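Worked Example 4.2. Consider the chain below.
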Amino acid sequence: MGRHQQQQRGRGERPQYSLSDQDRRAIIQDGNVKLLVKRAEELGEELKKEGLKSSQIRSIFGTVRLIQSTWPLKATADQTQRAYRQLQLLKPRLAYQAERNRGVGPLRDILTAAIDDVGNDRGRFQNFFDFFEAILAYHVAAGGE
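Applying the procedure from the previous section yields the following structure tokens:
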């Protein structure tokens, strides 16, 4: 698995997949597209194995797409602040979804850390969006329902 590590949460619990801090920052902060594609493919396949449904990913992705549509590339300070707020509020939504649905936990962990890397930077948000979209695409390509 390389830098993409499988970590045990505790005795008897399912494995939790994570993305190394270094790789996540290279994807979100630096925009490393080659690494984005490689890690998204691995994560999409792993999330499918965890039993995560495409509809569960899409419901979260829909919120991210909405944020993208309201956060133009040349945003005003007010637009940026509203988008930042909505992005931060995605964290509790992810936590709620992870409690309700088996398989969302690993995605929650990855996206929550990536949201922190975005901050209020629109360019980093686009990298986050692209990464999330690629995870969804590879999940479907791996046979995710």
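Residues 1-16 have pLDDT under 50 and may be disordered. The CA atoms of residues 28 and 72 lie 18 Å apart. Compare this with Example 4.1 before moving on.
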